[in-house]
Predict the structure.
Amino acid sequence: MQTTVERVDDTKVTVQITVESERVEEAVEAAASRLAEQVNVPGFRPGKAPRRVLESRVGKDALAQEAAQHALPEFYREAVQAEQLHVAGQPELDVETFEPGQDAVFSATVEIVPEVEPPDIDDLQIPHPDWEVTEEDVTAQLDNLRQRFAELETVSRAADVGDYVKITVTAEHDGQRIEDASGEDMLYHVEDPQQSNSELDRQLVGAEPGNILKFSETLADDFGELAGKEADFTVIVKEAKAQRLPELTDEFVEENTEFDTLAEFDAELRRQLAAHKREQARTDLRSKVVEALADRVEVALPESLVQQELQFRVQRLSSEAEQHGVSPDEYLQMMGDSEDVFSQLDQQARATVKSQLVLDAIAKQMEVEVDRNDLESEVYRQAQRMGRDPQEIAQLMTQDDRIGALISDTRRRKNIDRLLESVQVLGGPPADDADLEEDPEAGARTAAMAAAEATGDDQTGEAGEPDTHARGEG
């Protein structure tokens, strides 16, 4: 086999490949054997028809095409290995010649992982992220718990953000009532119009019982054929209700938590918030190191790697939508403008791919190796993060198509650990940081969890790792 490589641009090359006629003949013979098993040739048992008989029945071109379909990918892999190319996606093959008795000549254009010059880390200084628990943090968690047990009481004033209003809504398009957008005596929670971008919220802020509101608004994507069309709304405001929060007393705490007194609840809440914030700070520190290093390097990103990462993020978004019990489109509407969301996902994907390439270059320079213990630790960490059996995760992550990603993830994590020993971290948590770790045997409903349940914000969950995971090896 003869190969030459021609660079197309910073991330793409074309490999010219010539394969000896003897190997082409072997590929055609193998193809004939396969087709003989599949094609019924009168007078011959399956698999026993001679090649010349088979050619007369299916045609030489069909036989050559069958041979090329199986042989060219193998020839391509050999060429990539011979040229020591680190490919990043699937190739585009252009076949010039593939015929029995002749050398096969074809080219493969493919993206490759670019060579990255590792950045200098000697002068790198990273400020340690904030880790201290503030009174505002504690108050917010206590208010979350109070809101969970809040009661609604009718008020005589105008409605404001955070209130609940009883309304009757009539929506019409071209004089026809839209049932899905109409309703009688609905209890509606008024949100900040600047955040919700809802005309209904904008109209209700300042409205009083008895007011009749009229406005027009574009219908959302979930209205089927009417999506994107203007609808006329008439809203009758019947009643305004405000939340009345219960007082934080020993009796309230004893009745609604696992603690006997407010002092005990407050102390445990502070301890858990401290553990969570400091764990989050450690994770943020790792992210800041990776981000700072990536900012020091200009890297041409293979588009195939970016698209793999983007696809992963879109799939994760769909999974989150399923967990919330809504469709992906509805979930996008909850997150904001869909174009902005996808733009953010694309930016995040590009940042992640760049971080991966830079970390891999540093790991190569620092000669970071991964052993069995490292892989076992990574599997266990992933199992803890997902709340699943480590053995189940091990079987999943060590499959042939995922083992490369597991090794890459583990090497990058180990690389970040070493980098943290090399860079200068400005500031940091107190010396007694280890004393604030959460007890893994703690009860299922602790102070922070009780407070977080009010808003669905789990403040005790494990902090995430810098987003430098792999999607697979090219």
Notes: The radius of gyration is 32 Å. Residues 434-464, 470-474 have pLDDT under 50 and may be disordered. The CA atoms of residues 125 and 458 lie 32 Å apart.
